Amino acid sequence: MRPESFSERSSGSCRKTLEGYFAFYPAPLPPMLEVDWGLMALISQADQAMGELSGAGQLLPNPHLLIRPYLRREAILSSRIEDTHAEMDQLALFEEEDGGSAERTPDVQEVANYVRALESGLQRVGELPISTRLIKELHAILLQEVRGGESNKTPGEFRRSQNWIGPKGCTLNEATFVPPPHYELDACLGAWENFIHGNSPEPTLVKAALLHYQFEVIHPFLDGNGRIGRLLVTLFLCERGCLSQPLLYLSGFFDETREEYYRLLLAVSQRGAWREWIEYFLRGIRLQARRALIDTQNVLKQYEFFRAKLKQGKRVPHEAARILDHVFANPYISIARHSQRVWSFLPKSPTRD
Question: Are strands 22-26 and 12-16 parallel, antiparallel or unpaired?
């Protein structure tokens, strides 16, 4: 990493570490931002799109079931950015079989872990705020039983050595970007956590853009930083009440514009290009919220259509409604496993002496 690549407007400083190589030390958030009518209009449009999506989420009759395809989509797209590939049908079958007889490729396992980490995070933010403790919990889930997860990737632990970002096979000195050394992580993450829970006046969507950038720059884990950083956006928006349900799959936008995504993150570090990054992030929110709203409306319409069909039928077993719910959550269904679920719901017969 070359110090001359970083200007005086950088969002931190590029300086020598105790070991003699150059690394980036991010300045605490928030930065000084110039706000004009153009940026305010973009914030308003993104916020309106989010509000409409959140309102649609409140109409879902069984959100704990119907949101699962959204979680899968976010997991697949976020993992794809890291060149980990799984298809929706592979992931759905893997989940239905609990990883048993289904195809257990390393990529499918990693994407399934992302879904589990996101679900766990959504449950935990109700009792534990976004914090270093929470992200370590989620990281442990993300890297459970994956390639190298039990050894060199130290799941659930912050790194104790230097990592770097650059072309495959590059050395530390050839890297495009070097995050702060491991002995600076406590200070960097402490400042990041203080910003999340502080009283800075930025709108929630702008704050989400800032915290995502800062987490990516700190890069506190040896592996999985990008996926945890993108997962945190969903958790933050749900925690702050911007989303009633995790229906936004923002990683789809990042995946479609991958080169721009990485370029703008680096531009903030090198020349303080906060405005460009925030505008990009807000455009992604606006686009993906509108897409997700259409998807949600279509899902709700189809769900209500089939529910009405069941009500019109004669002698339709009560269990049909539960099967319908399952099919909307996961189009794969195991008869044996579903039978076990049915029996678990039935009241136990009293025993006779």
Answer: antiparallel
| Overall domain count for the chain | 2
CA gap 84, 79 in Å, rounded: 5
The amino acid occupying position 61 is: P
What CA–CA distance (Å, rounded) separates 300 from 294? 10
In terms of residues, how long is the chain?
Answer: 353
Dump pLDDT digits (tens) for 27-77.
999 999 989 999 999 999 999 999 999 999 998 887 766 788 888 889 999
Same structural domain for residues 265 and 311? no
Q: Angle of helix 204-218 relative to helix 258-271, nearest 10 degrees?
A: 80
- Distance of alpha carbon 150 from alpha carbon 144, whole angstroms: 7
Tokens for 163, please give them.
């990592």
* CA distance linking residue 123 with residue 69, whole number of Å: 17
CATH code of the domain in which 152 resides: 1.10.3290.10
What's at 273, amino acid-wise? A
